[in-house]
Specification:
By secondary structure, the chain is α/β, with parallel strands linked by helices. The chain folds into three domains: 160 residues, Beta-Lactamase (2-Layer Sandwich); 145 residues, Reverse transcriptase/Diguanylate cyclase domain (Alpha-Beta Plaits, 2-Layer Sandwich), CATH 3.30.70; 261 residues, Alpha-Beta Barrel (TIM Barrel). Helices cover 52% and strands 17% of the residues. Strands 9, 10, 11, 12, 13, 14, 15, 16, 17 and 18 form a ten-stranded mixed sheet that branches. Strands 2-1-4-3 form a four-stranded antiparallel sheet. Strands 6-7-5-8 form a four-stranded antiparallel sheet, with helices on both faces. Strand 9 and strand 10 form a beta hairpin. Helix 2 packs antiparallel against helix 5. It is elongated and about 160 Å long.
């Protein structure tokens, strides 16, 4: 258990919100593309500017030399006008910014200048990429003597225009190439990273107990190696899960299931009966056992053959299953060829209604084929300390009396008068009025404001779940009372379902519990009914409520019954995924009580399973220990932690430790206590396995 404890608790550092590889690579490539684009434009423009500067310098130098030679015969005497005319003719072409002639005494003989006005080139471009054409000087000779100096500076206007046009062309060409390159790289990046996303999804699916293989190989050799390794691991986990599940199913069928109806058999009844009977004194709900006898089975077998008898048994099984599935706390067993048994946790009124419903069903099913009636049903309340054989003997006696005197009503189970329908309507109205009576309006409010009188109607109890001396979480229970009278929880939920207010009752209970847990630390578990589990509106309200009050609430765990989960796997999966996304954990309780295949766990994002107490109480038997060990291996193989419920004795604790069960809960470790005692007297702390 220590190894498992360490492995379950060591889950690595808490996940942090990171940046995806796709985003990082995309940002890097965009930055590189922008850097390349900008640098290419700047370098090309700079090179072009240097070239134009050189051309302007060379042009001014050539003009100064040639023009100096041309005007040299005319610079002396009265012919200077001819020289000035020649200079003006060349200057007026617009290719020059300045032409100036000075004599040997530095006196300006003539000077021509023009302004730098450029309409097509933006002023910011001129400021950023300035052209600085040099002033080129040529000596003008008058025969054998120097007559003066001619200065020429080229006009940069045409150069600026050429540079501007060149820059625009480079800009658009580079931009087009950059965009095309980005698109090509993006497509390539998608192709390369798609397998990585699929690998990430496959790993996430594995963490959520979905064993899916990648059916293709990526292009890159490194990712191919990763895909092959991950596929092998997933296939190995799936194979181990299937093998362990097959072993569990085989043992389940051999030990606990009837081969004809696939219902739990007498062995399973003995196990469940012992667990329920020992609990009967610890809970406000009562426990009943019903015996259903197929009174015409012998006649059908004798007259029509055993095949017809098997059909008769199967029909009875289907009718019973239909009724049992409508009652969350009922379990159905086939204990002999002609007898079925039903274990029921309920209040008196719910038990009586269940029995009457069965009797009416059997009356409707009766035909001439069944001479002695379709089936008879008798019921008895379980007494603490009474074993199964004694209870069955009393039920057999009651069955025989009923067959001899069919007109006599079944003996009353309790002297108390059951509550009427109107009484229940008033009680449930009191329970749910704080969360409004209209469902659509009620599920839009995510605040935790509850009425003050809830404290008189609901009493909260808590019981810890331990992993050795470490507290895993604390389970909460709600007890009901009305006008000072304690009500059976099973009766309350059954009547709420019948009167159509079960979702409002669940909302009232969850709101009340969350309001009590505000400001506490640690982890607390809340039980939900089948109606809440499969209702999308309730799921949405619960998720919104958790998200809206995240800062005030402790960590939450929601416990749901295995039978309720099996009722609709699809909606249960949606609920689990939604709750997990809100940061809460999920526990499936009474695990194994349905004696069904464990394959349904595949694909369900569950954190804990809580083994049904009937298995824990039967751990003295070798095949039960093997079955529990197989359950534990299956769950550990897919990352689910295992809790043993209803642990009462040191021997059970020792067995659970040897079977590597992760955590324990039960009166052998800690009795349930009131939330008030827990919060006020003990500072919301459980110390070890005692207060």
């Amino acid at each position: 258990m220590t190894e498992q404890r360490n492995s379950s608790l060591t889950e690595g550092p808490a996940p942090t919100r990171g940046i995806s590889l796709n985003l990082q690579l995309s940002v890097l490539l965009v930055l590189l593309a922008l850097l390349t684009f900008v640098s290419s434009v700047l370098v090309s423009t700079s090179n072009m500017r240097n070239y134009l500067d050189t051309q302007l310098s060379q042009s001014a130098k050539d003009t100064a030399n040639s023009l100096g030679l041309s005007i040299s015969p005319y610079v002396g005497g009265a012919d200077i006008t001819v020289a000035e005319t020649m200079v003006s003719a060349i200057f007026d072409s617009g290719a020059y910014l300045k032409m100036k002639y000075t004599d040997t005494k530095q006196q300006v003989v003539f000077d021509r200048t023009s302004s730098l006005e450029l309409d097509e080139v933006p002023s910011w471009f001129i400021r950023w990429f300035q052209l600085d054409p040099p002033v080129m000087t040529s000596e003008v000779n008058d025969g054998w003597r120097i007559a003066g100096n001619l200065q020429v500076q080229a006009h940069p206007g045409y150069a600026y225009l050429s540079l501007w046009r060149h820059t625009k062309a480079v800009f658009w060409n580079s931009l087009l190439i950059c965009l095309l390159a980005l698109v090509a790289v993006h497509v390539l990046l998608i192709a390369v990273l798609k397998p990585l996303k699929d690998i990430e999804k496959q790993a996430q699916n594995l963490a959520e107990k979905r064993f899916e293989l990648l059916d293709y190989m990526p292009m890159t050799t490194e990712l191919q190696a990763v895909v092959r390794a991950l596929n092998r691991m997933v296939a190995h986990v799936r194979r181990n899960f299937n093998e362990m599940n097959d072993r569990a199913e085989q043992l389940n069928q051999q030990v606990y299931l009837d081969p004809l109806t696939t219902l739990p058999n007498r062995r399973a009844l003995m196990q469940s009966f012992t667990a329920l009977n020992q609990l009967s004194g610890n809970e406000d709900d009562q426990h009943y056992m019903m015996l259903v006898a197929l009174s015409s089975l012998k006649h059908v077998n004798d007259q029509q053959g055993y095949a017809a008898g098997d059909l008769y048994v199967q029909k009875a099984s289907d009718l019973l299953l239909h009724h049992v599935r409508g009652q969350d706390s009922a379990q159905l067993f086939r204990i002999s060829g002609s007898e079925f048994a039903v274990l029921l946790r309920a209040g008196q009124s719910s038990a009586d209604d269940f029995r009457r419903g069965l009797q009416q069903t059997f009356e409707i099913a009766r035909t001439d084929q069944y001479l002695s009636g379709f089936a008879g049903v008798v019921m008895r309340k379980l007494n603490a300390g009474e074993d199964l054989s004694t209870t069955l003997s009393r039920l057999d006696s009651e069955q025989a009396r009923q067959q001899l005197h069919p007109a006599e009503p079944t003996q009353g189970l309790n002297a108390e008068l059951p509550l009427s329908r109107s009484n229940w309507q008033d009680i449930l109205h009191q329970f749910t009025r704080s969360v409004v009576s209209d469902t659509s309006a009620g599920f839009s409010d995510t605040s935790l404001q509850v009425s003050s009188d809830m404290a008189q109607m609901f009493s909260l109890e808590v019981q810890p779940v331990y992993q050795q001396q470490e507290l895993v979480y604390i389970e909460t229970f709600v007890r009901f009372s009305s006008h000072g009278q304690q009500l059976a929880s099973a009766d309350v939920f059954a009547m709420a379902e019948r009167l159509g207010v079960s979702l409002l009752l669940d909302k009232a209970l969850v709101s009340y519990i969350l309001s009590q847990l505000r400001g506490l630390s640690g982890r607390f578990a809340i039980n939900l009914s089948k109606s809440a589990l499969h209702d999308e509106q309730f799921t949405l309200w619960l998720v919104n409520t958790i998200n809206s009050n995240q800062a005030q609430l402790p960590q939450l765990v929601f416990e749901v019954n295995e039978q309720a989960t099996l009722g609709a796997i699809g909606s249960a999966k949606l609920f689990f995924d939604s709750i997990k996304a809100a940061g809460a954990a999920v526990t499936i309780e009474r695990f194994g009580a349905s004696f069904s295949s464990f394959r349904y766990l595949q694909g369900l994002n569950v954190d804990f399973i809580k083994i049904d107490g009937s298995f824990i109480r039967a751990l003295e038997e070798e095949d039960t220990r093997f079955f529990v060990e197989t359950m534990t291996h299956i769950c550990h193989g897919i990352g689910i932690r295992v809790i043993a419920a209803q642990v009462e004795t040191q021997a059970q604790i020792d067995h659970c430790q040897r079977l590597r069960v992760d955590a324990l809960q039960g009166r052998g470790l800690h009795h349930p206590i009131s939330f008030q005692q827990f919060s006020e007297k003990n500072g919301c702390i459980f110390n070890g396995t005692r207060l």
